[in-house]
Design a protein that fits this description.
Length: 463
Amino acid sequence: MGKDLCSKGEGFHLLKQLEGILESDKLIDEVGFLHPTQFAALNEETGNSLHPSVTCATTSSGDEDLCHSSTIFWKRDHKLAISTQALLPLYNAAKHAYMNAARQYGRVANLASKTDEIFDGNSTNSFLVSEEVLEYEMMKHSKALLLLSCDFGSAWNSRFYYSHSPKFKACELIFLVKWKHIIAKKQTLSLFMDELLLSALILSYSPKAEHAWSHRCWVIKMIAVKYGNLQEIVGRDSELVEQIAEKSKMNYRAWNHRCWLISYMKREQVLDELNKSRKWAELHVADNCCFHYRQRLMLSMLEHGSPKQSPNLCSDYMPGLHKLLKEELDWDEMLIKRYIGREALWIHRRFLSQCWIKHFVSDVQGVYCNSGDRDCSNPNTGVFMDGEMQLVSSCLTIRDSVFEDCRAQAMLAVTYILWVSKQIPQHQGIIELQGRLRNFGDVKTLLNKFCPEKSLLWDGLLS
């Protein structure tokens, strides 16, 4: 049976089946690769046999059923399973079919660019028909190939090229004539949505596939150029990242894509994302990616309120900014006290403190909030530091605990307050701050007690 499955003819037969499944159901949103022995149990669980469009492959002579007691493909409710037994012949067949279609397309395009007959209407139409057929074949084969090998860069590039804007194809008059019909037909929202579905399908089994994320960014850029309004698409993409992050922890590429989406969000959508991502962050306090995403959202809010964009910054924007930062600081403090020793929470607090100091303590931008405004913070170092000192003090009360999390909490608290002390400008009362730090005892002694292996680092920081 292994020889039969690896034979060239059976590989193309399986490829034809796979492409037929993908063509019959364009809403497939999840794919998995199962061992042949798992298909029987899968069918028992669902109480369903093979999908009508999925048939078992047989040898060319018809003597042996390649599926035997298992199956090659299974599909139900827009979910697709492929037998691992068929992956190698499927990949070889898909790669061969794709490369062959690409070579034929290249020859036809080259012939069309060299012949003078292209300016004749009948010849042009014949070239267009031929190229449309080959183009369809390339898109079909590349989809199957990418499903089997998501890092096949050439296949991604071909989908990029043959669905792209005219500027890559109409460099000369000859290409303008040849491509005008295809481009007019292809530049549709449905085409771009199909590409988003394809990348989401591949990410369902390979959530860190860099090519898939890059292709998704390109598609969204194209939609933004042609259609403008992206609120719904950006919202769905943000939800997709959250779903993927639930299955794939610390997925930098997914979260980086979500951060990139912020550039297409309006202010109201940014606030909505801040609210929606809070619950997820509370359940994943060790995942720094989500807190980084919240930081990017807040930076987006801060950019909207910069002095250059808002001349009346103090009266129009500072009260809202003060409330936003205060709520985030209080929320972060609650998490720090609830989840002991989580470094991501302290890193997030450093970001919040830096924003607070920049906008409400220091005169970095030459803009002060009116201290007479009841909604604004008093730009006094002591007001902010009192709250931070109380937090650190509460974390140091458990410094004698033998548990590692408690020791880590104390070490993170001391290093945090030490870091904050270095962010306060010299003219804002640094001497007073150093006096407050001494209330905890010798900082260097505390650091060496909680983390003696970094004694050289503490010496350098405190010198």
